[in-house]
């Protein structure tokens, strides 16, 4: 096959905030954060087939229709990422049109950075396809302008995230563990949750260089928290039900909300334990979106 028309794919893994401390607020209203971010095996996927036609996006997958009528238009974060990348691509890049297909498997506006992960996947995919040769710093700056969660999603690897999301540093070495994700089906607006937050700012966490077991990690994380959990429960009361249901599962080590919600996660000793718990929860709550497995 001609390499210039070959279909390329990138995964857009769900971003999970294992803890999330709001440590301050900037004069422009954005909040300063301290968070340990990991990526779950669950995710959207983005395909690109280069072609002569103008670049366009098609949506498919379980949540492909939930984004609304203009979902595949220029406001989709994938198209915004493509436009931003085009604007920094030098004359040596092979910028082309063609067809992007986003398979949307992550619930929308759910605290697991679906749109951010999609934008980040678009940056990785198109930078590769178009042979964009710019410094990583330029790509990260471009990512930051698309959304606070986009820089960490570009790397798509466990990281400590600070600033408003743009300062990334090494995270503790994580032990093997399993994770369950649950979303009750109610979209939650990130700005609404930040607006409702009225607790005191929390301190920056002290983290070890590594956790030797999932239990050790859960014990340390239990002393930390998600400062957006209480305001998200006000905006979306079913979050409380989801957290209780997760905590009741056999072998659950920790149950917490991710980001601004409403998706909650639970940690388990293994991916197999997590899959079993997701299966049990699915039988009890057929309307919930559920995923269980290993970290990405
Ligand atoms: C809460 C997190 O999910 C944690 O990972 C992210 O910080 C949210 O990242 P995001 O959805 O990419 O956020 P953006 O799209 O940049 O911002 C949406 C809105 O959330 C609020 N926002 C976001 C990030 C941040 N550090 N402080 C904020 O106050 C602002 O009101 C902003 O207008
Ligand atoms: N590709 C996309 N996928 C999801 N949402 C998108 C996309 N493009 C634009 N959006 C818009 O972004 C908003 C936030 O969606 P997203 O799923 O990223 O939220 P989130 O999971 O709460 O993100 P975060 O955890 O970063 O706050 C949606 O309400 C939607 O209007």
From TrEMBL:
Please, one GO biological process term?
A: isopentenyl diphosphate biosynthetic process, methylerythritol 4-phosphate pathway
Catalytic machinery residues: 15, 149
Pathway-wise, it operates in: Isoprenoid biosynthesis; isopentenyl diphosphate biosynthesis via DXP pathway; isopentenyl diphosphate from 1-deoxy-D-xylulose 5-phosphate: step 3/6
Domain GHMP kinase C-terminal: where? 211-284
Ranges where the GHMP kinase N-terminal domain occurs: 76-155
- Annotated EC: 2.7.1.148
The catalytic activity, as recorded, is: 4-CDP-2-C-methyl-D-erythritol + ATP = 4-CDP-2-C-methyl-D-erythritol 2-phosphate + ADP + H(+)
For this chain, one GO molecular function annotation is:
4-(cytidine 5'-diphospho)-2-C-methyl-D-erythritol kinase activity
Show the InterPro entries listed in the entry: GHMP_kinase_C_dom (IPR013750), GHMP_kinase_C_sf (IPR036554), GHMP_kinase_N_dom (IPR006204), IspE (IPR004424), Ribosomal_Su5_D2-typ_SF (IPR020568), Ribsml_uS5_D2-typ_fold_subgr (IPR014721)
* Annotated positions binding ATP: 107-117
Indicate the segments annotated as coiled coil, or none if absent. Answer: none
Q: Which SUPFAM superfamilies match?
A: GHMP Kinase, C-terminal domain, Ribosomal protein S5 domain 2-like
Q: Which UniProt keywords apply?
A: ATP-binding, Isoprene biosynthesis, Kinase, Nucleotide-binding, Transferase
Which principal EC class is assigned to this enzyme? transferase
Which family is this sequence assigned to?
Belongs to the GHMP kinase family. IspE subfamily.
* Task performed by this protein: Catalyzes the phosphorylation of the position 2 hydroxy group of 4-diphosphocytidyl-2C-methyl-D-erythritol.
Protein name as catalogued? 4-diphosphocytidyl-2-C-methyl-D-erythritol kinase
Q: Which gene encodes it?
A: ispE
């Amino acid at each position: 096959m001609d390499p210039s028309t070959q279909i390329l794919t990138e995964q857009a893994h769900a971003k999970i905030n294992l803890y999330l401390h709001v440590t301050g607020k900037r004069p422009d209203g954005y909040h300063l954060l301290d968070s340990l971010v990991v990526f779950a095996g669950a995710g959207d996927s983005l395909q690109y087939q280069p072609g002569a036609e103008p670049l366009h996006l098609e949506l498919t997958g379980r949540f492909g229709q939930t984004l609304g009528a203009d979902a595949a238009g220029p406001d989709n974060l994938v198209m915004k990422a493509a436009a931003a990348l085009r604007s920094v691509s030098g004359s040596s890049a092979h910028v082309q049109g063609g067809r992007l297909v986003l398979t949307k498997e992550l619930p929308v506006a759910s605290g697991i950075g679906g749109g951010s992960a999609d934008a980040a996947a678009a940056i990785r995919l198109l930078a590769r396809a178009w042979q964009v040769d710019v410094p990583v710093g330029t790509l990260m700056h471009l990512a930051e302008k698309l959304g606070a969660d986009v820089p960490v999603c570009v790397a798509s690897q466990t990281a400590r995230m600070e600033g408003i999301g743009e300062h990334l540093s090494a995270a503790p070495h994580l032990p093997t563990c399993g994770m369950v994700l649950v979303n009750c089906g109610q979209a939650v607006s990130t700005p609404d949750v930040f607006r409702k937050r009225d607790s005191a700012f929390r301190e920056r966490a002290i983290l070890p260089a590594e956790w030797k077991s999932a239990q050790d990690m859960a014990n340390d994380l239990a002393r930390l928290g998600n400062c957006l959990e209480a305001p998200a429960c006000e905006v979306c009361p079913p979050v409380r039900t989801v957290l209780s249901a997760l905590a009741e599962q056999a072998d659950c080590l920790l149950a917490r909300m991710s980001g601004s919600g409403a998706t909650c996660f639970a940690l388990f000793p293994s991916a197999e334990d997590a899959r079993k718990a997701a299966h049990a929860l699915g039988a009890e709550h057929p309307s919930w979106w559920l995923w269980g497995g290993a970290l990405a």
